[in-house]
Amino acid sequence: MKQVIQSFKTGNPRVLDVPVPKLIDKGILMVPRASLVSAGTERMVIDFAAKSLWQKARSRPDLVKQIIDKAKRDGILTTLDTVQNRLDKPLTLGYSCAGPVIDVSSGVSEFKIDDRVACAGGGYAAHAEVVTVPKNLVIKLPENVDYESAAFVTLGAIALQGLRLAETKLGEVVGVIGLGLLGQLTVQMLKAAGCIVIGMDIQPQRAELARRLGADAVATVADQFSAICHQLSAGHGADAILITADATSNEPVESAGEAAREKGIIVAVGSVGLTIPRKVYYEKELDFRISRSYGPGRYDSNYEEKGNDYPYAHVRWTEQRNMEAFGQLLAEGKINVQALITHRFSIDDAPQAYDLITGKSREPFLGVILTYSGNPDLSHKVTLKSKNRQLSQTTASTKMDQVTLGVIGGGNFTNGMLLPSLKNVQKVSLVGIASRNGVSAQSTAERFEFDYCTTSGEDIIDDAAINTVAIVTRHHLHAAQVIAALKARKHVFVEKPLCLYQDELDAIISIYETVNPINRSDEVVSGVRSPSLTVGFNRRFAPFIVELKQHLERVNEPLMLHYRVNAGYVPPDHWTQDPAQGGGRLLGEGCHFIDLLIYLSGTKPLRVTARALPNSGRYSQDNLLIILEFTDGSLGTVSYLANGNKAQGKEYLEVFGGGLSAELDDYRTLTIRSGDKSIKRTARLRPDKGHQAEWQCWIDHLTRQGPAPMSFEEIVLSTEATLAAHLSLQKSESVTLGDRT
Fold it and tell me: Topology of 171-290 in CATH?
């Protein structure tokens, strides 16, 4: 299917062939017939993307500061890689469209196939031939509302939310500053509500259009606007002013203050300068409000992504109910959007639409609609035209000279760490990549030269040309995908954690033992090599850790190990904090450090204790102290902290035992003191946490050139210890590990 994206690297919008998105949970799959191009939000994105790197930096000093801080913390090369990865990541354009439903996820009863709907939401209601949208960002259309009109639903909801904040009442005098699309819709809504409406815009043709669409009076300069507001209100001034302009200056806010009556309400709906002139606002005791998008529910993942509605009696107007109200206004003929449409482009010609709204075409415009044929290619798999490699059918055979890799998951870690780590690794052929988001799948496939991209993980697992699968999805998906890949007799790499629950671990053990009858992945049974499994515990393979481990092998007494992780704050609504998706930070990231202490101790953990600081309404049990007691008497602690300052390094390890002391500072420096000798190592270019070495080790193993990176027993042991720490945290008591061997 076709989709419009914005490249931050080239600055140009493009129309790409991408796989059809996978239907999201609690959502619908829809075929747009029309989508609205935003001359505000989208033009801002296009303008920013077109800037040079230096211009981008000058316009966003906040991002420059973040980059400098990261460079101090993680090194220049690592930071440059991060910036490059962000620039390579395309942005989907569009947030308002309408068309028929072609699929509905299980559990969604509000919609059915063939329903005519309108959809909202950046990243969801995109300029694409097929979109998948959460149910709370979708409304059914009245029968007499056409798709082009319905494509204005997002702007309609934004305008309506502004009216609600202005608390406008029948007969009141209301001013509207800025008569673009948002202002024109606001004028018509105010007239439908029985208000006296005065519009103001510096473009005379827009002011005249507002008059034709119902405004009682219009102005093109601020003084004239203020005078009319006072004239039509018996000298008092407007009861409310809605600022729907898009301007960086403070003039709209200043003009609103002059035109409003005492104790009037001023609502900033558009993006304008917010330096409020104290004198006039103080003397009139004005109420200044900022409208947040299309209403309650916006930016709330529980509402938008998880489909949890707010109680009707307590939150009368959510963003979805605002969208429905706009649809009803269209049905009753109280809003005329056809008069606002000045241009129509097919999706194939979308770049011309952006030339128009950015001023390159040098012609006036207002409403710009993209149209669609309605018969998209519904394939969830796209073969890249730039490649024509013929791959023979392969399995985990007795002689594996080449790793043919399929990747499931195309997020930040895949693009920023996993695939760059494979650039210099030999004997790896990148075959296919899957991501629920078609744009993500396509851009990653193009950047790293995969043969194909898909939005179905099953395509990767079922592909006979792939003998190895890397699973880099959200944590709650790991266990099921590992099991499916092992059943398909693929070698499996899974980014940590292996799983989130004990029953998932039990199921993985069961299937692993089934496909490895003698429990050894390097054995051959009936001419076929058994599948191998490894987990992304990369720190074991960091050069400094490898050297430290060699020194610890000579220590013949219990060790004391301390690992401090200054992890930084993550908001409670981030997916990693969601127990159902991420499992929380202990399971999601804490497993790294538990595994490393087990590896360094060289023995098994016997007992695990975990405690957390009070959350205080800000944290999510992510200020942790984990204590590991080992069978040989060694003790290990992990201090995992979300409440620290990010200017300090993230990771700091100390090890003591047998006259040896060692400290590892953020993988930048390693110091080992033993007897009268001292060794100090420094990472000159960038910290190395072992990602590439881990993959090289595993590929050497798969191609019979080296041992396995980790035994299956080690993987199980680290996972059991992590699950035990999580259980200890929940029960506030120590947990003794059972012996599975």
Answer: Rossmann fold (3.40.50)
